[in-house]
Specification:
2 copies of one chain form a homodimer. The first copy, chain A, is mainly alpha-helical and about 140 residues long. Chain A has a single domain (about 5-135), classed as Winged helix-like DNA-binding domain superfamily/Winged helix DNA-binding domain (Arc Repressor Mutant, subunit A), CATH 1.10.10. Chain A has 8 helices and 2 strands. The first copy, chain A, has helices spanning about 5-20, 30-35, 40-55, 70-75, 80-85, 90, 110-125, 130-135; strands at about 60, 65-70. In chain A, strands 1-2 form a two-stranded antiparallel ribbon. In chain A, a hairpin with a 5-residue loop joins β1 (about 60) and β2. In chain A, α1 crosses α8 (about 130-135). The longest helix of chain A is centred in the first third of the chain and has 16 residues, at about 5-20. Chain A starts with 5 loop residues before the first helix and ends in an 8-residue tail after the last helix. Chains A and B meet through α1, α7 and α8 of A and α1, α7 and α8 of B. Bound molecules: FE2/S2 (inorganic) cluster (2 copies). One FE2/S2 (inorganic) cluster binds near residues 95, 106, 107, 109 and 113 of chain A. Chain A binds a DNA duplex (30 and 30 nucleotides) through α3.
Chain lengths: ~140, ~140
DNA sequence: ATAATAAAAGATATATTTGTCTTTTATTTA
DNA sequence: TAAATAAAAGACAAATATATCTTTTATTAT
């Protein structure tokens, strides 16, 4: 287990990959995305269906079709991807699995964990998909292996 | 999904509960632990078997038997519980699921995620089970609901 | 219109996590 | 020694996450 589910990890990598590969209306196919982020193609296809339904990425069928992101999508914070796939558990949940996290009924990790959780939330909310993309464009960042 | 597996969450809560309930050679039974941390008894029993085999807690069978922790166990960092149950993934793994996390092949989250991960590691390594127990003894902390 | 392309949808399969039940072993008490 | 107690061990079951395969729908190009 990690901070995010495997499904969510694939989703984030795919979204970055699409953002990176599609400027000005270009599209990228599922096969290429899967190869680019090192994920099982059919499984990723399912994940993409979900992201598309939720409007996080856009898609067009048929020849020259594929996935792409418009300007509005690039302005969305990465947290939207996480929320869509994993829900808000990582942003609001108790570190030790108590039903609710609250200062009224705090678990032993509460104080420390709150700060960590806030930090995760910040990283996800204050950076847009487009922000990450700019760094990716510098060519030093990786989405596979 | 959270930062830790459900199994690990139960394990941490159980260890705290035992530390809290057993001073000077007293023991506490699995039923009482399960009730005290709000977990399924039979499942927790399995988790405890593992923790016992790994020497994180101690146990004695038969009447007046149960689980307990000696002074040495209380001095162990909480990270030992996490390592025993979930492995080191949360301490060393890549936030986006790349096979290895490294500065040589960094994912887009790498810099930010490294700091978060280090923070988690610190919380777990620099606090012993006994440390948490002292706070628990103040009676303001909770292990259930 | 037809054929080709590519995503969407639906059904199914596998693996892992979470959870339960029964039997066995160790220990204590009577 | 016999009965009672409590954890250990092993087998089994359910739920969820991960993964694959087939069919359908939308779009494009011929
Ligand atoms: S109650 Fe556990 S993190 Fe807040
Ligand atoms: S490479 Fe992803 S966190 Fe370090």
């Amino acid at each position: 287990m990690g901070v995010f589910s495997k499904t969510c990890e694939y989703a984030m990598r795919a979204v970055f990959f699409i953002a990176h590969r599609t400027t000005a209306g270009e599209r990228v196919g599922i096969r290429e995305i899967a190869a680019g982020i090192d994920s099982p193609e059919a499984f990723l296809a399912k994940i993409m269906q979900d992201l598309t339904r939720r409007g996080i990425v856009n898609s067009i069928k048929g020849p020259n079709g594929g996935f792409y992101m418009d300007a509005a999508s690039l302005k969305k914070p990465l947290s939207e991807v996480v929320l869509a796939v994993d829900g808000d558990g990582i942003f609001v949940g108790c570190g030790m699995g108590l039903e609710y996290c609250s200062a009224v009924n705090p678990c032993p990790l509460h104080n420390e964990f709150m700060e960590i959780r806030t930090r995760i939330q910040k990283m996800m909310q204050e950076n847009t998909i487009g922000d990450f993309n700019e760094e990716l464009n510098l060519g030093i960042l990786s989405l596979k292996k």
